[in-house]
Records
---
Amino acid sequence: MTTARGADLLVELAAGDGAPTLLLHAAGGGIGPYLGIAAELAARGPVRAVRAAGLLPGEEPDDDLTAMVDRYAALVDEPPALLFGWSMGGVLAWELAARFAGRGARPAVVMVDSTADPEPVDDRLRERVVASAGFAPTAADRDRVAAVTDAHLRAVDRHRVRARYDGPALLVRCPDNTDTRWPELAPRLRTRRLDCGHFDVFAPDHLPTLVAHTKEFLDD
């Protein structure tokens, strides 16, 4: 197995001028779920996304969240204006923002139904994560997505967010999300509600509300 090159992990979804956005993958590693929100954010500037290592043949998946943050922080020369992530991707966005604060930057952070503490994962939830990755056209691809998912779930199980970040932050929370630690870590946190399940946040019925919450936060 080989290590994925950084250039292979960073995907340009929209070019242009303006405030750049960086989307961070959720567990499972694919960026397919972000295509709808990326199209909306492209009106503000270029949009790039980070997909996970392990999804292509010969790549080794990461099973440590801090190692992922180290890898992804090295991908960008300048911190983006917005870091956006769903689920584990929101945690990656948060940790990257705290890392960029050390460079003197204060990017906005949008976390979609993310939790600051580890959560138990059963087999049913694992299968939902695998299915949500949006990167499995063949049986071999599905096997790789499953391996990446297992690595990510191990990473999430071991990771507890401790970094404070004083930049602007938005948590879009689904009803079942009972995490209470984000306000302790985020003095400028704004919270909004999305009335759907965790795996439905980008569905056509709910994407407009997510877009509206995000735009309101960015425009304020």
Note: The two ends are 46 Å apart (CA to CA).
---
Amino acid sequence: MSFGSILKELRKANHITQGELAEFLKVSRPTIAGYETKDKQPDFEKLIKLSEFFNVSIDYLITGDSFGKSNPNLTETNQKIYSDYELEHSLMRQFIKLSYESRVDLIELAKVLQLRDKMHEPNL
């Protein structure tokens, strides 16, 4: 799998537009499109930022492999992209960057999401 297709899959799985990713990397949207479709490659600094943004290794971004093993995460769009540990770690990293008000809002949102999950649980 190519860098461009891996980047596109990660971006879509995380519901990020090319414009949003471009803003994060401080590049133009066509630059992101070039990464995804025209075999253009980011410089090392941007590759590191992408790795941190999506919480994946640089190796994974470039080859689709993690630690020399095939990563099944990109074989189907609906499969989990992150392990539970990675999700918790990523959430905590983002949480500590928020203002107090935003943290309170996030906690309230989490409560709403818990209710939604409960409604979708199969009746046992």
Note: The first strand starts at residue 65 and ends at 66.
---
Amino acid sequence: MKKLYKIFYWILFCFAIILTIGSILSVLRNIDSQFLKVLDFARIQFFLSALIGLIIFLLINRSWGKYDYFMIAGFVATMTIQSFYLIHYTPIVPKKVPDATTDNVEDDRISLVLMNVKMKNKNAQPIIDQIREIEPDLFLAMEVNQWWNDQLKVIEKEYPYSRKVLNELTYGMSLYSKFPFKKININYLQNKNVPSFESIITLDNGKDIRLYTIHPVPPIHFEHLPDNEGQREIAMKKLGEKIENKELPTIVAGDINDVVWSYTDGLTGTNDKLLDVRIGRGFYNSFNAHNFLTRWPLDHVFVTKEFMLNKIERLPKTSSDHFGIYVELAL
């Protein structure tokens, strides 16, 4: 029994060292390394692993030796480093986007569902049923190809305004709206196969808002798909340049393939013009719906200061590998 305890002790000690080294390296997230980017994604997992490891150690420890303090220091260092990034998505910090009040009339509200439907997913009905149940004003679908376009035709009666760019490279995009488009442009910020939309939408009260819908490529290499390996978020930087020069109330929504961790300004260069609706509220992890061990927030909504938030919700699981994200905003 003593030998077994010793083996387990040293496994736990090595675990603490690995977590500490990984957390220190994760700070270097802007270096062009796929490995370091993965460490940036897994901050929640790092924090929870260190917390569980610390609790286990305190429960099994029989006496205190010099290596015990190293182990505790490792677990605490890991939690401290990760907390620096994660704390922004807890109620401990103030909300960047304030809560809506009862003074906001119905005509000043706009609701949005964004969802990566997963192109290879051949079960559209759960997603269609969810959209019909929620009835958002806007529905952004990503990874839309011709098959998905055919399936989503059934909601076009409820959404008389739409814009679509379809492809078979997992970067098709469709935007469905109950409000008319005053203008909608298709942009290719980084890659000719990766569209984004720039829309001006007129609400029922006659006010115009600007909506950018995006799905930039992830910072890794794909053999047969568009990739962003070694490139410093060119699409997000270009989007930031567009937003800097616009005056209308603005929403940015999409699967940005990045966890950001309170790093919006760094990605877009917008100098605190874009506000993350999740700050001060929660993580709302949207991917991976099939595996809770590798789950993090990839689908985001950012707004300018003219907006308040009435509701944000991670929707129930459907057939996709992403959860849908629902937000209701008020001007």
Note: The first helix runs from residue 2 to 26.
---
Amino acid sequence: MKELSIDELLAIKKTHNIAIVDVRSPKEYNEDHIEGSINIPLLEDDERALVGTLYKTQGKERAVKEGIDITAPKLKFFHEKFTDISSKHDKVLVYCFRGGMRSGALCSYISSTGIEVYKLLGGYKSYRKHVIDYLENISDTLKCILLHGNTGAGKTEILIDLKKQGIPVLDLEKYAKNSGSVYGEIYYSDGHQTQKRFESLLFNSLSKNNDKFVFLESESRKIGKVFIPKALSDSMKNGYHIFVESSLEKRVSRLVEDYSKSKTKDDDKLINATLMLKDSLGKKIVDELIDKINIKDYSYVARYLIENYYDNLYKHSNDKYSYEFKVSSDDYKETLTRLIRFYEDVKGDNYEK
């Protein structure tokens, strides 16, 4: 049986049209997977749970027999899928959790039908170890340029436009599926992020960056349900820090756009998030804000939260850094020009504070 190590796979991905097939259950795949892989599960979630229970209660032999009984009727399906996949790719690789029984059995069957297929040595676990090792050593090769600023200052918008200019950007909020504070998950409506998936997305982005500099937004180590790896967090603290300012009116406008118009259009989510502020703002204020949401007065809510919640919440973290300089996103074109110039200066080792 042909095998590839994780290092060999990642190298081949750069130069070949390789299909990567994850044969783990959908639940395992959704928790994390190799970038670009497709999920063709050997066992569905309920089937995997049944086999696992039999393994624990009746032993390996009984579990293996049940696994064979479940997968045998699917062999025609697998053959058809892999025939189609192999016709569209230079190479086909299969992986399961440890690179053991599931991927081994399927590779043996597919190979017996005349289709060339590789197995990932060590399976997903080898990939996971590679990601962890990479992120643990990221501080040796990465220099971060941090954008700070109060809520609604336009930092995310700036990062998007910097990326369009071909400048390396790491979107922590996007990968964490959370844009901060109690309203953070509203912006991302497709569920919580797992720590493993978050770290894989960081690895995917950073490992493609041939430049040691990267722009990102200042964040605490915890974003929503996930944590920034320590080495990356250390690189952020030791990086360059730039403060983005904006007028109150512009900030209110951005929050209204982000949380009530273009993304969610769901007042129930806004209300549920606002209810979480009772301890911070008091029941009377929260009830008043909910009344304003119900009559679509989003500007009132945004303005109140900026002046009485957000700015107080982030004042300490904003004050603890020494900034290279400050920019105003109200003059958006000038802000982008200055940030790009700064990036070019530090990249060329021409920056003097």
Note: The chain has two domains: 3-132, 137-347.
